Amino acid sequence: MVTFSYDNLVKIISDYKKEFAKRFPGEIYKWKAVKHFQEHWDIYAPDFKGMLRQALSYGKKDNLLTSMQYFPKTMLEKFCDINSDQVRDMFLTLYDERKGLDYRINYFTQSAKDLLKQWNKGKMHYQDFRAITTYLWLRYPDKYYIYKYSCAKALAERLGSSYIPKKGIGANEVVEVFRLYDEVSEYLLKDSELRMMLDDVLTDDCYRDNRLRTLVVDLAYFVGEKSKMSQLFKIVGKKGFPEMPVADTDMKVDKDDSSKEVNKYTKEDFLKEVYMSGEDYDALKYLVETKKNVILQGAPGVGKTFCARRLAWSMMGVKDESRVAFVQFHQSYSYED
Questions:
Q1: Under DSSP, is residue 277 helix (H, G, I), strand (E, B) or coil?
Q2: Which of 23, 17, 54 is nearest to 39 (CA)?
Q3: Phi, psi of 319 (to 5 degrees)
Q4: Closest Cα to residue 79, out of 114, 104, 46?
Q5: Beta-strand runs (E) in the chain
Q6: CB 292: neighbour CB atoms within 10 A?
Q7: 75, 84, 50, 60: which is closest to 125 by C-alpha?
Q8: Could you report the per-residue pLDDT of 244-297, keeping only the tens digit for each?
């Protein structure tokens, strides 16, 4: 059994509840992805690759397994082209509850390495602990969780846990974190207010999350995000920020262009929409103004684009889509069918 401070957990849950209504619209895709997977997964489907692609892709929110420089789902499809039955066997073993979790994770990883050698066109198979636990969570959402090292470590440290995740110890790293998450889940199940809050926002196309395992995942991501922002603030320093010149934000609409509308957008507006403290906002704004760029790092779906757009508006002083542009960079790989 993993021990931790329940007082710390109570404080985390309290903070989470305060952010819940604002946070959840950007996170609901997790619950939708589970139900989508449950409705489309068929391990014995004749067209295993087609079934796999459909089950692991929830609309525009399939970025659980596909994001910039991280595409385990794409690699699984490539591996299906090599040996679809071997990929099927990987999932059959992964989902075989008669075997130990560490064995199943190691088997999946080793099989991916073997297929990568057969493919001989890339250096990474991307089937890491995060991807493998995502497959487990999608299949058995009342038992498993998504494991992401940075979030698990942040939660364990914030809880004062007797176990802090350490890289390099193999699949046992996941096993121990899941024990911690199980304890957190059992505590959340006793919180009727949290259960009601979740039930009120889950739609018909969402998994009901009976054991609140997915909520634990979201709680870990929540703590991980806060930890990232705290580290950012520490880098800048807590002695305050130099005064920066403030641009004239009283925008005027051209009389000959009455269709153009701009609305004032302030720091206060930003803080109402983005779960970030005023100090963290000041740190982020200062970095952009002085360094001219900043990297927002986080798991898919945590709200990086949402935050960036509103940061731009707040720094301009106006909510004007025409003055914000997004550029996506792609890294080229020689994938050949």
A1: coil
A2: 54
A3: -95, 90
A4: 114
A5: 263-264, 318-319
A6: 7
A7: 75
A8: 444 444 444 444 444 445 588 898 888 888 877 776 787 788 778 766 677 887
Are 129 and 105 spatial neighbours (Cβ–Cβ below 8 Å)?
yes
What does the pLDDT look like over 184-233, one tens digit per residue?
A: 999 999 999 999 999 999 999 999 999 999 999 999 999 998 887 777 66
Pairwise CA distance, residues 154 & 220, whole Å = 8
Nearest-angstrom CA–CA distance, 110 and 130: 15
What residues does 67 pair with on adjacent strands?
70
- Side-chain-side CA neighbours of residue 321 (13 Å): 3
257 phi-psi bin (left φ>0, alpha ψ -120 to 50, beta other): beta
Eight-state DSSP code of residue 264:
E
pTM of the model: 0.72
CA angle 226, 227, 229 (to 5 degrees): 65
Residue with tokens 């684009």: 305
Task: Specify whether the backbone of 69 is left (phi greater than 0), alpha (psi in -120 to 50) or beta.
Answer: left
